[in-house]
Design a protein that fits this description.
Length: 352
């Protein structure tokens, strides 16, 4: 298969890259880290001025009517700047779940506020959740931007519900996490009343597909940024009378990063395209994209620190922002081993 972006997709990519490069600055990201992990001005501009928050939501649900490829393009651009936004949990997972599995009334009630950025949602998945009717009991840690959420989409292996963060029986506990640009919280439900989504399987599947695509594309953008920043540094830093990028061992490390990134790029857009086309390979491609892109990002972020020398280890340098985000991405939504085991089972069956 030969894949190439359409003119419209190229325009979306150029617009998103320019927007995040101009607005998602290191200074603003660090200010958000000192607060709740959200650059509110950036979030409002992204949702209301740029108008790309509904990029992966069907037109029938109030979105732009585009697909996972376009969502990946946006997530890649945001990841390149380590943007402090609740995009993953609120738009890529919660909004997708409501758009795919919610009733027309639920979509009309919730999606406009989500897509405008006025309401932030968290995605809570607890396989052990117990439901007595619509009374929910369970808990989940590592809910992205959970402490800032006004709404939760709660799923188990058998059902899906929406529930307000201030509903009786809901307790949200902020957690201390390594990646301060995407803070987590533990959400505990003790008999909290949820409103069921009409088509739970569709909601869960849509949320997980969009989540895998978004986080893999974000990892791709971060990995590319690590390479680009390191190449720029290699041209400026001089040792022994020559730019350090001219040394063979240094160039080999950069070449290794580039090769891994190009493979990750193929995996990410294969997955996004497979989902959009309803391909039988979509599930396998999603597992491959998440595991490969996350590992590539971590490798590139580590190399960025090492190839910057002493300055790369300091708090003042942005390399640590990429490294922490990369490490967090490796662990979230299933680690690499889990995804690779899923792929092995699909290919080998019982032999896996």
């Amino acid at each position: 298969m030969e894949f190439a972006f359409t003119d419209e997709q190229q325009m979306i990519g150029e617009t998103a890259r320019a927007f995040f490069a101009e607005n998602a600055t290191s200074e603003r990201t660090r200010a958000a880290m000192a607060g709740n992990g959200i650059d509110q001005g950036l979030w409002t501009a992204f949702c209301q001025e740029l108008g790309l928050s509904g990029i992966g939501i069907p037109e029938s649900a109030g979105g732009a009517g585009l697909g996972m490829v376009e969502l990946a393009i946006i997530a890649e651009a945001a990841g390149a700047q380590v943007a402090a936004l609740p995009m993953l949990g609120s738009l890529a997972m919660a909004a997708q779940a409501i758009a795919a599995g919610g009733s027309a009334a639920q979509q009309a009630d919730l999606l406009p506020a989500l897509l405008s950025g006025d309401l932030i949602a968290g995605y809570v998945h607890d396989a052990a959740l117990t439901a007595n009717g619509n009374s929910l009991t369970g808990s989940a840690g590592f809910v992205a931007h959970g402490a800032s959420a006004g709404l939760f989409v709660v799923t188990s292996n058998t059902g899906a519900w929406t529930i307000r963060a201030d509903a009786p029986g809901v307790t949200v506990t902020p957690l201390t996490t390594m990646d301060q640009t995407r803070p987590y919280a533990r959400v505990t439900l003790a008999g909290a009343k949820g409103e069921p989504l009409g088509d739970a399987p569709a909601a869960i599947a849509a949320a997980h597909r969009a989540g895998f695509v978004a986080v893999a594309a974000e990892a791709l953008g971060g990995a590319q940024a690590c390479l680009d920043r390191t190449v720029a540094y290699a041209k400026e830093r001089v040792q022994f009378g020559r730019a350090i990028g001219s040394f063979q061992a240094y160039k080999h490390r950069l070449a290794d990063m580039m090769i891994e990134i190009e493979q990750a790029r193929s995996a990410v857009y294969w997955a996004a395209c497979a989902v959009d086309e309803g391909s039988d390979e979509a599930e396998l491609a999603l597992h491959a994209a998440k595991s490969f892109a996350a590992d590539t990002y971590f490798m590139c972020a580590g190399n960025q620190i090492q190839l910057h020398g002493g300055i790369g280890f300091t708090w003042e340098h942005d390399a640590h922002l990429f490294f922490k985000r990369a490490r967090a991405i490796q662990a979230m939504l299933g680690d690499g081993n889990w995804h690779r085991e899923r792929i092995a089972t699909m290919i080998l069956g019982d032999a896996a």
